Amino acid sequence: MASKRSVDVGGVQIGGGAPVVVQTMTKTETANLTATMDQIRKVADAGADLVRVAVPRDKDIEALKTIVVESPIPVIADIHFNHTLALKAIDAGAHCIRLNPGNIGGPDKVAEVAAKARAAGTPMRIGVNSGSLPKHLHELERENPVEALVTAAVEFVALMERLEFDDFKVSIKSTSVPNTIAANRLLSERIDYPLHLGITEAGTKWSGSLKSAVGLGTLLADGIGDTIRISLSTFHAEEEVKVAWEILKALKLRERGPVLIACPTCGRLQFDMDSVVTEVERRLEAYADPIEVSILGCAVNGIGEARHADFGITGAKDSAMIFSKGEPLKKVATENLVDELFAEIDRYYEAGKRVVVDEHAAAEASQWLAENEDAEAMTPERLAALEREQADREAASPVAGRRFTRA
Ligand code: SF4
């Protein structure tokens, strides 16, 4: 169930059907104003809607007063253990306070923070971590960690409601991907507050991105989750933002910048596609429009499954081709492939998003394609298409689902 309620964090709506919000957390000492602001600008440029900063000391509060004014995106103060820092962060103008009601010193202190937040109109994120569940849930945690996480979250929600504070979102964090999925599914059935999704300590850029894509992607595909943060072991917080966007773009939940598609390559490849893909990806970062660009390693399939792409290239040893929306545009030398691709893309924007076709160049490209295409070749793409057709046929068959074994 998607959350019905919403919170407004410095003008960014979370929940209630709003687009999924991307957030990250700075890795700098917050009191180091120059370094923190530098990182905030970088994550904002990368597409973060919100940024969270750690506030473990009084000197961080001092910096926070400036950060909330200078930051191009709303700022969430991350507080643990010390409720007076939460009170001070609200006074400092934080757009949202994150705290775990379980580690802030008891219900009275939560009540004090809630009262101040209500008076200031500051929303909160209340969180539950698998590593810091309340004592009375430890036995349940051993038997059923998912139920324990959800119970803790529901108890905190009930506490906030008793305090007549309902301007909050909720997070359940676990290092386990299956537990994160199961717990958020269960929680989304029990409460209708906005949900913040994340996998705690997901890992390195590589493994952490995959874990996050599986865990958060599964939930988001179910319509669960209103804001996401990817936790990666990197000092470069903007990397977390890029991963978050790739997940949202893959699920077609939000659009930002171009979408790059590339074939997996196989033994038919005859040019350095790795370098071409890397260079195209790098240059596409300069474009804000969500155009789709496809890179095919060879022309044996023709334009094939890339015919919907706004622009595409298909390479070969010495010569290659640029195409647009399934139509050949130009034959080029492979060594100029990337430059020529971007020349066509720029021409498209200069012409007001209209593909400019040179009839002579297009005819030459069509001729090249006809010479290089091989409709009989069993490529990975065609094998996949055949397998798909067979699976469809089996699904439609009256004996679908039956299994035959040799006697
Ligand atoms: S056959 Fe397919 S996977 Fe192999 S290089 Fe050509 S386009 Fe890429």
Question: Could you explain the architecture of this structure?
Answer:
With 407 residues, the protein is α/β, with parallel strands linked by helices. It has 13 helices and 15 strands. Strands 3-4-5-6-7-8-9-10 form an eight-stranded parallel barrel, surrounded by six helices. The protein has a five-stranded mixed beta sheet with strand order 11-12-13-14-15. A two-stranded antiparallel sheet has the order 1-2. Helix 1 (33-46) packs parallel to helix 9, helix 6 (145-162) runs parallel beside helix 7 (177-190) and helix 8 (205-221) runs parallel beside helix 9. The longest helix has 18 residues, at 145-162. It starts with 5 loop residues before the first strand and ends in an 11-residue tail after the last helix. Residues 401-407 have low confidence and may be disordered. Iron/sulfur cluster is lined by residues 263-266, 268-269, 296-298, 300-301, 379-381.
